[in-house]
Amino acid sequence: MEKHSVTIDGHATSVSLEAEFWAELKRLAASEGLALAALISQIDTNRNSGLSGALRVFVLERLKQEAGR
Fold it and tell me: What is the helix (H) or strand (E) element at residue 53, kind and residue range?
């Protein structure tokens, strides 16, 4: 588990994520032509739970889409 500092809409916060989820978030942001902070901000806008959990669910859903499931 790693703690990362991020800024969302001008507010600093931190999220704790496993390194594998963090790496996938970076990859997904790059594949969409977004800065990592911009992708996290989008996820934050649409979340219904804690930010760390929302990031994990986002990564899982994207990986499932890529796998054709």
Answer: helix 51-66
